[in-house]
Amino acid sequence: MLIRLITPPGTQQIGGGNHATAERWAELLRSLGYEIVIADRYGDEAADLMIALHAWKSAEAIQRYRMRHPKAPLIVALTGTDIYRYQHSDPEVTNHSMQLADVLIGLHERVTGDIDPAFSGKVEVVLQSAVAPGHAETSKSDGFEICQIAHLREEKDPFRAPLAARGLPEASRVRIAHAGKAYFDDWARRAKEEETQNPRYSWLGNLEREDIWALMARSSALVISSVSEGGANVVSEACVAGLPILASRIPGNIGLLGEDYAGYFPVGDSVALQVLMQRLEDDANFWNQLRGHCRTRAALLTPAAERASLQRAIERCLKPG
């Protein structure tokens, strides 16, 4: 079976989450015997099935495929911006893609509560997997380093962690190491200003994957402060790495870490995040509690589990009627 895996235009050039997801899914699906072609547009080429990442950004490819193949199976994977931005700012285009799909993939367990109920019955949850590299474990840094792995854009609320760290007691050893690309000069300028003014903050820029894993290995925790997420792969990576996570209380994080996780803080609340940082540094029992929870969740985030979920989505798509 030939599957065309469509990513948003430009994804293959700029990288990022959608590109990483597409490459990982292609590898998993090839291991199941499927022939996979990744592209950022569709020009009426032959296909037995299409999987399109992003309902809004891939809308043109989705519509063209459906016109060319009215009865062929179609899967649309919903991203965070689909669910939490474009579903509201451009519902006609986003909902049309969802309507055309036979199956919708959600990347966290609470997706059905955040989309139009008319489409919730189409959802198949596929939790993104991660595999820690098999190199020797890196020693922890001398301080209490908290890594933040997020590109500099509005949805990520990228300066929440350094703002929270500013209010920590002078004796605190917390340092924020931020890895992520600034797509615009204004974001880069602000990161450099924060680095100059805040001794607890370092902006590392865009790192290669092996350097990201090395950063996590030497860190004591990870912070994800996003305003919205469709199911961030960095959460999966941190769980697999055995890192405690301090996470904004949003559906995308709750849908990966569970409702009962103790490491949440309200979106945009620097004081609450500061309290969690200090508690994590000072209270070994709390650190172990969060770490244990994340390690437990890691059992759901394996390549085998993700591959089985993708296969379920495909089988559901192929069922007659």
TrEMBL record:
InterPro entries: Glyco_trans_1 (IPR001296), Glycosyltransferase_G1 (IPR052622), Glycosyltransferase_put (IPR027627)
GO terms for MF: glycosyltransferase activity
Name of the protein: TIGR04348 family glycosyltransferase
UniProt key word Transferase: yes
Assigned keywords, A-Z: Transferase
Pfam families xrefs: Glycos_transf_1 (PF00534)
NCBIfam families: selenoneine biosynthesis selenosugar synthase SenB (TIGR04348)
Domain of life: Bacteria
Span of domain Glycosyl transferase family: 139-283
